[in-house]
Write the structure tokens for this entry.
Amino acid sequence: MEAWGQQQRDLHRPLLWMHAPSVGEGLQAEAVLRVLRARHPDWQLVYTHFSPSAELLAARQEADLTDYLPWDTRAATSRVLEAIRPTALVFAKLDLWPELACQAAARGTQVGLVAATVSPVSSRLRWPAVGLLQSGYASVSAAGAIAEADASRLALLGVPRDRIEVLGDPRFDSTLQLIGATDPADPALRFRQGTPVLVAGSTWPADEAVLLEAFAGVLRVHPEARLILAPHEPTSAHLVGIRARAKQLNLGDPVRLDEAAPDARFILVDRVGVLARLYGSAALAMVGGGFGTAGLHSVIEPAGWGIPISVGPRWQGSREAGLLAEAGGAVVLDGSNPARHLAAWWNQMLSDRGAREHQGRSAAAVIDAGRGSAVRQAELVERLMRIDQRFRTATPS
């Protein structure tokens, strides 16, 4: 970042630094950046992330520089800010680093949040995190919250309430753009043929224990049932564990995605980057994370495809899951016997196409109602880039 700043930073051009730590936040940031890049081709853009899983997403951004975020130490932060001299520093979702935010604000850089979301069970709301992070959140000049509840919790973290606006979730726009841009001939869509398939996405072992038991039960009623299983971390050890459990349940050996025929009964996805498009082959979906401690993964992609969704009982950190359940587009599995509940729902949906399509339309309607957030969040960033003197802060680091 220092080398880029010395060689390519043009101080006559505004510079936006966007930080999105992982893939979910990156998809939210991407929708906003797409609007901004089209409107402001003269801006320089730096995009940072923190998770290795976000490397591919970062590489496709139309940014002048993409890199990992440096550690949040006083020395590293000072060096980077001096090197690239951003006009505005914007964090996607919530992952604000206090040293970076405070030093940026002290230098006159505008600090912002887009797609700001605070789970009601977030550890940041508890001591000692809430105390340690408060100065960083107090340095925020403007924040675009997804919903009113998020705005209230942002204020608890330390963002001044009069600097928070409720602007919706830009990931809805990102998902709809991806779906609209998917080629009908995409290989990921080939599994639409034959018996309706359930796609289980971003699963962990706790999810898979429920899913595979349910699949065994479904096959006793619907021997033609089909499953595509995409683990969140398709490591060799994880895939071996899934195969072993499938063997115990007499499910047979799953086939790898790249080797699977369109009518394959049980497919195991052994790579990342394809799940969002695989949901386009689904008649039903199960989203992982609702049975362990990792937190529920994104339900937006299957909902955007118009797919009925099932989630585990630990969904409360996902606003979207709540919206979908309320609208009838998602079912929350019973925590006392989730495998039986999942099998019953799965069997019902295979037997009743009308009910399946009704739930799918309900899910799609939730996502469609969220259109337009990317533009509203981009307009917030535009205001920050104008360096409005009313919001300038000088919070000490």
Notes: The domain at 2-169+372-391 is CATH 3.40.50.11720 (Rossmann fold). Residues 23-39 form the longest helix (17 residues). Residues 78 and 103 are 7 Å apart (CA to CA). The radius of gyration is 22 Å.
